[in-house]
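Follow-up to my post from last week.
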Amino acid sequence: MDLNYTAEDEAFRAEVRAFIEQNQPQHLKGVKRGEYRTKEDFLAWHKILYKKGWLVPSWPAPYNTLSWTPTQKYIWNEENARAETPAILPFGVSMVGPVIYTFGTPEQKARFIPGILSGEVWWCQGYSEPGAGSDLASLKTRAVREGDHYVVNGQKTWTTLAQFADWIFVLVRTDPNAKAQEGITFLLCDMKTPGITVKPIITMDGSHEVNEVWFDNVKVPVENRIHEENKGWTCAKFLLSHERAGIAGVARSKNAIGRLKQMLAMEVVDGGKLIDDADFERKVAELEIDLTALEFTELRTLAAEQAGKGPGLESSILKIKGTEIQQRITELTLEAVGYYAMPFADPLAHNEFAPGPDYAEGAAQHYANMRKTSIYGGSNEIQRNIIAKMVLGL
Amino acid sequence: MDFSFTEEQTLLRNSVQKLIQSSYDFETRRKVAKSEAGWRKEIWQQIANDGLIGAAIPEDFGGLGGGAVETMIVMEEFGRGLVIEPYLQNAVIAAGFLKAGGSTKQKEELLPAIAGGESTYAFAYAEPQGRYNLADLTTKATKSGNGYTLNGYKAVVLGAPWADKLIVTARTGGDQRDAKGVSVFIVDKNAKGVTTRDYPTVDGLRASEVTLENVAVGADALIGGEGEGLPLIERVSDEAIAALSAEAIGAMKVLNDTTVEYCKTRKQFGTPIGKFQVLQHRMVDMFMNYEQSVSITYMVTLKLEEEEAERKKAASAAKVQIGKAGRFIGQQSVQLHGGMGMTDELNVGHYFKRLTMIDTQFGNVDHHLKRYASLS
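User reply:
Got it. Predicted complex:
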C-alpha cells in the first residue's frame, strides 16, 4: 500500500498540465456543454488532442502510440477536470470506435476509424427505444435483409446530440423469433440516408440534447454491419462495459465542489458568508467525504486494473455513487443561490437578460438536467440489481 | 377535533376544480407560460368573478368572508392545476397585508379592487444580500413632506410583470438587519422612478427585478405603523407559507398519482415495473411523504391565528416538511418515469420544477429549520 505518486507520475502530471494550460480553448473554459453554441465548440478540444496524439490513450496500436499507465490516465482526467477543458464526446472515441477496432473487418476499420479520430465524422448512439429503456434487449427496430441491403424500420429515442450527427450506430432486430438477446444486429448508418428523421426532444430545463430518430424503410448496405448478423448484443455488451474509466466523474466533481465553495464565499447570509454557516459547511463536508471515499474506490479499481485484473463489477458502484454525488452538488448549488435559482436562462436563446450573479445563472435548470444521470447508462436501480445479482449472488 | 369540510367549503373546492378542468389543461398551461404575456388576463378575471380571489376577504370589503381553510382549498386545487396566475401575491399577500395592517380607509378603498381582480399586486421584499431574512433591507424610505421617498433594489419579484401595484418593504429607521425600523408601502408600478426588468422563471411564472429611484409616495401608502412593519411582514409571510404548502400538496398528489399509474402500465422485462418491490417501496415512501405533508398543511392552516411564537413555529415546521417532501416526491417521480420524466412534453417535469421553486419561496428547508429551532 502506497499513496504516493512515483516521480515519473509527477513528471507526467507537470507535462500534461503545461500542455493543457498552453492549448485549451479559453472561450470554453468552465462552460457547461448545454451552453455550447456551435458544433465546433464540441469538437475544439478533440481536434487539439488529435493533433497532439493524446486523444485515445486507451486505444490499442496502431491507432495509439501512447503507453500511459492506468494511473497516468487517471492523472490526465484529473488535470482536464481541474482546467475545465471540454469533455470529449464519447460516441466515436469511447463507443463505436472500440467496437469497430474490436469486431470490424479491415475494410471497416480503414473506412471508419480515421473520421472518428479526426473528429470529421460525428457519431450518435441508436440504442434506447420508447419501449426499450432499462430492458434494452427488448428493442423492436426491425431490419430485414433484402439482397445486399438491410431495410430498417422503427424508432430510437434519447439519442444524444443526433441533431449534429453524420452517422449513427444502431441496434436492430434481425431475428424476431430468437431469444431477445440473440436476434440483434449492430449496424452503421449514414444519417443522410433517405427515410431517417430526427425530431428534437426538449428537456424540462429547456435544452435540446436528445432526440428521437425515426427509420422509415432506410436502406443500409450489408457492408455496414459490424460483426455477424444476430451477434449485435456481443458488440452492445462490449460497448457498455468498455471504457469505464472516468465513469464516476470524480475529478469533475472535485472541481465542481471547488466552484461551489467559491460561490459560498460570495453568498451572504445575515451579513456573514454562507461558507461560514455551520449547517451549510456541514453539508459540504459530508459531500466531500463521500467523494473522497469514491475517489479511493476508483483508485482501488485502477490499482486492480494495473495489476492485470480487468475492470470488475465495481463499475456499478462507481456509476451509482458518482451520479449521486453529481446530483448532490447541483442540490447544494441550488440551495446556495437562494432566490436567484428562479430566473429561467433559455439555453436556446442566448444573450437574454440574466438577473443575479453569474454563477447563479441556470442553477435550477442544471439541477433539473442532472436528474438524468441516475436514469441514463443503466438506471441506478438497474446498477443495484447488477450488484445484487453478480456480486452478492442474490 | 374535526378535519372535515363544511358544505360551503366543498362547494368552493368543486367550483375551483370545475374552473381548472374547463380551462386549465396541461397543454394550454404550457402554451400560456411560453406566450408573450405569460398569463391569461381573462382567466384571472374569471378567478375573480368566481369569488376565489375574495374567498378569504371579509364580505364588507367585497369578499366571501372565508378564512385560511378557504385559501388552503383554492391553493391546493391551483397546485394540482399548476396555475400560473398570481393568486398568492393577491388573495394571500396583498389582501393579507391590508386585512392585518391596513386602515379602514385602505381596506375600503383597496380590498374590493383586489377581490374583483381590478388591481393586481406583487410583493417586492427580497433583496440580493438579504437571502431569506425579511428584515435584511437596504431599500430606504425617507420622510419628505407628508410622504416618503423610496430608494432601493428588489430581487425576483414574482408576478410583478402583471402587477400595477407593488407592496414594498423598506427601512424607515434602524440598521440593515434590525427588527425595528421596517415599514411597508404600496407603490404604483408606473410611478416615476420605478423601473422593472421582466423575465420568466424556471417554473413557468414571471418575475421582475425592481429598481426604486427617488420614488415619491404619500403618507397613505404606508400599511401599518411606521417602523413597526416586521411583525406584519412575518405574519403575512407565514400565511403565504401556509398557502404555498397547500399548493405543494396539490402538486405532490398529481405526481404521486401519475407515477403510480405509469408504473402500473410501463412494462420492462415482460412485467409492469410497478411489480418490482424496490419501486413499490419507493412509491410507498412518496405516499407517506405526501400524507405527512397534508397533515402539516392542515396544522399550519389551523394555527395561523394562534399567538405569534406558535404561528411562526407552525409555519417553519410546514415549510421544512413541504420542502423535504417536495424534493423527494419531485425527484422520484422523474426517476420512476425514466427519460420521459425529463421531458418538457410531460407534465411531471413541470410539477417537479414548481415544487423545487416552492422550497425557495419564503425561505428554504435550512432557513426554516433554524427559525424553528430558535423558537423552541
